[in-house]
Description:
Elements: E1 6-7, E2 14-15, H1 19-30, H2 44-58, H3 67-75, H4 84-88, H5 90-95, H6 108-123, H7 125-166, H8 171-174, H9 185-197, E3 200-205, E4 212-216, E5 219-225, H10 231-247, H11 252-263, H12 268-275, H13 279-291, E6 296-300, E7 303-307, H14 310-325
Helix pairs in contact: 1-2, 1-7, 2-7, 10-14, 11-13, 12-13
Amino acid sequence: MPALTESSAASEIKVAPSAPLELMWLMHNSEAQHELIGPYTTQEAIRLRFGDAARAFWADGVRGYTDLVVLAQRSGTLFDMELDAFFARFGTSCADDAAVPSLLSESASERKAFAERLLKLRTDVDLRERYLALLQSVWAVAHDEWELAGCDAVMAAAADWRERLRNGAGFKEIVERQQIWKGRPQLDDLSDAAAADGRLVLSPGWFFGEIHVVEVDGMMYLGRGIRSHDDDEDRRVVATRVASQLKALADPTRLRILLCLAREPASVTEVARDFKLSQPTVSAHVQMLREAGLLDEKTEGRSAMLSASAENLRRFFADAQDALVKHFR
Length: 329
């Protein structure tokens, strides 16, 4: 299907659905450490099937796949409604030696990580082929839903958004945000400036989260998921889940165990000896840390050696943050 773009003469704000942005969100949601519910329920099977691969592929401590937006923009496929051309041009866009884009919507550490990803894709053909295979596999599973329901739904939403813009609605009204991202006022400044200069593109999303924000060399891509859900039920489930997650770090002894395993791998027996605790007590602490995704385990001989990493801890807090922040306006 060809690209779909259109602008409002009154506002110069463009509205364009995007299959590459849908893929970016599928990959992002696959990384979640928790069950996907509500409007994301249909992605749970994808998370269960590809979650480990999605989390392990880059292993750089940064959640998200903003690099896909850059690659789609380079290949001229960002507003395509199918991914055939994006996949066909993937090798060429990865090999492009263009300067790393600004990505002002991301934090400094995220910009650094995405720049390193793009460099690796440019120089490592094997990595590039494995990445493409993973992306194609995820899209193959999601494609039927996209073709049967998602594509038509976002096209209808896009038509509605354009009409609302023509009738005087503001872009923040359309994305249902008085503030783009609480605690990050620079995103409002970037969006306001982009809207004034004709550099803002709004995208309704089928697989999106509640808010989508990416800046690439002055262009601001802003959107939101369009699938309806029960806000009260979402808040209840999120509160229960995040409280359970954070409980893993709520005990001082358990936190000390995590910090020790971050310094040096050890078995449950060794931890019990060092902490002068019974092995069942240590096993219970370790189980909570393991279920929270904070520990790695490797078999050495007859022992299971436990370790902790900064990457796991960053992912733990990023997951909790993502779940909570989307409920703030």
